[in-house]
């Protein structure tokens, strides 16, 4: 049964996927394209840089770009993990394989950035080299202004983003597949009264591990948008440091005082006193204020629905989130976003 779904365009609503791809490109500053298992694009480029647009329009250079895409995708499949490499113009690109049950169904191609610390990328492979060096040099000189405008990021940022995209893309594809199969399962069950088991449809999958992946992805999505300065996660008290790190790296969770006290190997009452001394607020107020601060950032830089922001930050339901937001900001999230967009 699962073979029927191994075509990415049958699993995903490509219009919705493209909107997500556009948002990811905006947040990560990467150009992103999705291809099927044959390497054929199933979406248009999101945020394709001017330099790469012009290179791909050049009939002499386009074959090099296509070879990079093809070989990058094949290497990612071979490794079964994101593959970071250099194109024929030494620009950083990423191939992220999308697999289901060990079977390759497509890839997300991302990149079009330069390294801020090229010395850390010396191990990156230039996957395609020019057979006509003078021609490449002349083309680069012609497009130098566009080349200079390419985004720049550190090698560490590239690796972290590639891992986040891999987790996100595979989770979404698996969730879509699960939904399709569950619909079919219930249609069959209603038709012939058979009792079907999830393990029969999806060997190796369970509700528990799907929920675990979902929690990881919720944290990854929030982290992709929210950047913490070192001071946000550092405590003047080494004893409390594990709690601050956990709070900031698990934005989608409802973190309890007892949970954090146990993490710091303290009694709840002693943890509460230390925490209040450190932050000048009690634990509950601090967590609520911090989540509202994150919510404001998400309202300002994304078009996420209020209900999704509520979910991303671990509120029980959007009505409670709106109530808390209004308590701290004296305005609803929707009005806050509208006000900020008018500035």
Short note summarizing the structure:
The chain has 3 domains: 2-171, Beta-Lactamase, CATH 3.30.450; 178-225; 230-341, Arc Repressor Mutant, subunit A (Orthogonal Bundle), CATH 1.10.10.60. It contains 17 helices and 5 strands.
Name of the CATH first level of the largest domain: Alpha Beta
Distance between the termini: 53 Å
Shape: elongated
Largest sheet: 5 strands, mixed
- Mean pLDDT metric: 81
CATH topology of the largest domain: Beta-Lactamase
Helix proportion range: 55-70%
**Strand-and-helix sequence, N→C?**
HHEHHEEEHHEHHHHHHHHHHH
Low-confidence residue ranges: 1-5, 185-208
- Rg value: 23 Å
Named at the architecture level, the CATH assignment of the largest domain is 2-Layer Sandwich
Count of extended strands: 5
Number of helices: 17
Beta content = 5-15%
Question: Layout of SSEs?
Answer:
Layout: H1 8-11, H2 14-28, E1 31-36, H3 50-57, H4 62-79, E2 83-86, E3 92-100, E4 103-115, H5 133-142, H6 144-148, E5 152-153, H7 155-192, H8 198-201, H9 207-225, H10 230-233, H11 241-249, H12 257-263, H13 268-279, H14 283-301, H15 306-312, H16 318-329, H17 333-341
Parallel strand pairs: 4-5
Antiparallel strand pairs: 1-4, 2-3, 3-4
Helix pairs in contact: 7-9, 12-13, 14-17
Keywords: DNA-binding, Transcription, Transcription regulation
Domain HTH araC/xylS-type: 241-339
GO molecular function, one term: DNA-binding transcription factor activity
């Amino acid at each position: 049964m699962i073979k029927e779904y191994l075509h990415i365009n049958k699993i995903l609503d490509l219009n919705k996927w493209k909107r997500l791809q556009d948002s990811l490109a905006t947040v990560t500053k990467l150009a992103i394209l999705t291809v099927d298992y044959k390497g054929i694009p199933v979406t248009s480029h999101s945020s394709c840089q001017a330099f790469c647009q012009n290179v791909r329009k050049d009939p002499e250079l386009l074959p090099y770009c296509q070879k990079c895409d093809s070989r990058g995708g094949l290497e990612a499949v071979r490794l079964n993990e994101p593959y970071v490499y250099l194109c024929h113009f030494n620009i950083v690109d990423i191939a992220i394989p999308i697999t289901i049950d060990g079977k390759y169904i497509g890839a997300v191609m991302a990149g079009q950035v330069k390294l801020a610390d090229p010395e850390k990328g010396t191990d990156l492979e230039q996957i395609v080299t020019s057979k006509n060096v003078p021609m490449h040099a002349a083309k680069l000189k012609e497009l130098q202004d566009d080349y200079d405008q390419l985004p720049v990021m550190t090698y560490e940022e590239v690796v972290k983003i590639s891992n986040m995209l891999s987790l996100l893309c595979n989770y979404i594809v698996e969730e879509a597949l699960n939904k399709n199969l569950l619909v079919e399962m219930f249609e069959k069950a209603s038709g012939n009264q058979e009792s079907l088991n999830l393990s029969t449809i999806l060997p190796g999958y369970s509700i528990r591990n799907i929920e675990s992946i979902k929690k990881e992805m919720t944290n990854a999505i929030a982290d992709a948008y929210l950047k913490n300065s070192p001071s946000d996660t550092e405590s003047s008290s080494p004893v409390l440091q594990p709690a601050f790190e956990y709070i900031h790296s698990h934005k989608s969770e409802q973190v309890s005082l007892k949970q954090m006290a146990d993490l710091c190997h303290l009694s709840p009452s002693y943890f509460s006193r230390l925490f209040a001394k450190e932050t000048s607020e009690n634990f509950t107020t601090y967590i609520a204020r911090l989540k509202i601060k994150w919510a404001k950032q998400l309202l300002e830089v994304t078009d996420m629905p209020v209900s999704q922001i509520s979910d991303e930050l671990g509120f029980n339901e959007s009505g409670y989130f709106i109530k808390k937001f209004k308590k701290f900001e004296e305005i609803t999230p929707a009005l806050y976003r509208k006000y900020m967009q008018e500035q």
